[in-house]
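Morning run. Coffee first, then this:
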Amino acid sequence: MSMDKRYQEKIRKLLALSQSDNPHEAETAKRQAVSLMKKYRIDTDELDIISTYPRPIKRKTIKEYESILVSAIMSISGVYALHGARPRIYGGRIVWDSRVEFIGLERDAELAAYSFDVIYPQLEKARKEFQKTYGASAQQADLYCKGWIVSACRKLVNVFGKRDKPEEVVKHKANKQEGVEPTKIKDTKSSGNRGLDFNCLTLGHAHGKNASLNVATTDQQEKQLRIGGVSS
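And here it is:
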């Protein structure tokens, strides 16, 4: 649980106590809530904002095609995203995990993490199959993934449409990101063969149209949407 979320939950509890029938208890709780909100620059209308964390990316940096996916998800959900990386010990050595944090209103942030968790494994599987089938290099696979994700994200936006960030999310982003360095994105590099690069991108774009997404509807019933079946 993030530090902000812990404080938000504490403030919610204090605000609830401020409605107590005991005047002394109510006044004390209200004073503590106001003090915490001032200290951590949390407004009342920001208390409904949460963070969600999709599956980690097993490396220290975010690649360009992963950034494209995150941007598309932000555009459909009205959230913003932060990126962090942390080391862990695995098999006697240090390995890094990158984690995307989606921040927004509860339902929006949950949709964002859900979308990432559904699409990203399909991308990983497509990459492995591409490399196995064609004996492709890592650079060629990155180009394939870029084409794949651009196509899949276009369909994702067609399904949901774009959604502006709510005012309280915009305000929260301004406070949260003050002084935070922007994430460094690893650009997709050329393999040195322009014709082959184009073929990798084109094949990825064609395969990305077959990406599928399970979407939870407003009544919490799930239905399957085939992104490739939605017209551009």
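Residues 3-46 form one domain. Good start to the day.
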